[in-house]
Design a protein that fits this description.
The structure is a homodimer. By secondary structure, the first copy, chain A, is α/β, with parallel strands linked by helices. Chain A has a single domain (about 10-240), classed as ComB-like (putative 2-phosphosulfolactate phosphatase, Alpha-Beta Complex). The first copy, chain A, has ten helices and nine strands. Chain A is globular. The interface between A and B is medium-sized, with 26 and 26 residues.
Chain lengths: ~240, ~240
């Protein structure tokens, strides 16, 4: 059909990304706790750009070259040699304005690299803090979409699924969705939509972040819609505010 | 802790099976449409055993050696050289009693082979027709459990997830469940529990089976609890009624 709608698929784990054709698609990298929330926060607060890299050593080396901040985590903790972590609350305007953030994380930045390796047409990052910006962009682009959940070390997680569901809830009229993972994601999101913060304690990741690291404020920020409503768009190695 | 409960995890795709430790676990192979429903049906109706194999050519060769029935499908259709398909309704007592079924399918028998390759301690097959037998066995064994969804060519599907959720709904008091995919599966199942047949048309697989192959009766059987309530237990190359 000439006027058929573009497709939308939800990929529940980086280990399933190879099943999807990214060549003509917008890929939304989703790592709600916390990489893609941190990326939105840094750009919203005036960072010049965020450079996602897949290794700690690369982040350190590159940050020196570009006079940037080497930040990120491994297994949820600040890794040796990085000066800042992966908390969206660390990047206030005072601190981050006009600076370059070089970010490496366990799941999100790795998935972004995988999407690059699979020749994704367009890559953006999404999380609740920039939900509306992501949805508006997907509708405007009118191109196939793959919602890529970063998960936790290739395992499924619910918070990334909730975000995928929130996007689907908003944009579904504009896409052909014939994919059980998308239907599941939407239903999971609708189940928690009205009181998402109260559902957070059921997340495996909540226990890791709150009980081990005390990051309750991070959780709250990462599950709040449109508090850093910019669109991080990947271009030539950097995520820039579109 | 000495008396801690065994763990239960849900694996949403064969492509994620490597993330789980199967060495001391009961693995439940789940392929609701239709391999594991067909296995339950054949054993319930008196088959001597079901031999799962991963290739069509192997199924044909082996069926000749054991004087069995070479059955199965590729992409939902009877494959060349197989005499019977993957429908649970093909295996009535008249036909299957005291015979050996050599079965090869796109997803379920492949996942079983993967679990064998990962040295699973115990392998059983599960589907709605034998829901109670599976749950009773898992409780009695009191061992770690991995619910393995076969999906469709490594993609997530809802019907296998529903079955995983149905098992969790029944056995959860007996296990430590700290796994987002299990929580999601249970919630998805609870959402459809009261009228599962009415929810079937939302499944991607429903369209493949009903619109392309007219298999509405198969769908109904495969989503009905305890209509072939036996426990297929894998032992030395065969699935036998436990």
């Amino acid at each position: 059909m000439m006027h058929s709608k573009p497709t939308l698929f939800t990929c529940l784990s980086p280990a399933l990304l190879h099943l999807y054709d990214l060549n003509n698609a917008v890929v939304v990298i989703i790592d709600v706790f916390r990489a893609t929330s941190t990326i939105a926060s840094a750009l919203y607060n005036g960072a010049r750009c965020v450079i996602p890299v897949d290794e700690v050593a690369k982040a350190i080396a590159l940050s020196k070259n570009v006079d940037g901040i080497a930040a990120g985590e491994r297994d949820g903790k600040l890794a040796d040699g990085l000066s800042h972590g992966n908390s969206p609350l660390e990047y206030s305007p005072d601190f981050i304005s006009n600076r370059t953030l070089v970010l490496t994380t366990t799941n999100g930045t790795r998935l972004l690299q995988m999407a690059l390796d699979q020749d994704a047409h367009t890559i953006v990052t999404g999380s609740f803090p920039n939900l509306s910006a992501v949805c508006d962009f997907l509708i405007k682009e009118n191109r196939n979409v793959v919602l890529g959940c970063a998960g936790w070390k290739d395992r499924f997680n619910l918070e990334d699924t909730w975000f995928a569901g929130a996007v689907i809830d908003r944009v579904k009229e504009h896409f052909t969705i014939h994919c059980d993972s998308s239907h599941m994601a939407e239903q999971q999101y609708l189940h928690v939509k009205e009181n998402i913060h109260e559902h957070a304690p059921q997340l495996t990741h909540y226990h890791r972040l709150v009980e081990r690291f005390g990051l309750i404020d991070d959780i709250r920020f990462c599950l709040t819609a449109d508090v850093a409503n910019v669109l991080p768009l990947y271009k030539e190695g950097m995520l820039l505010k579109a």
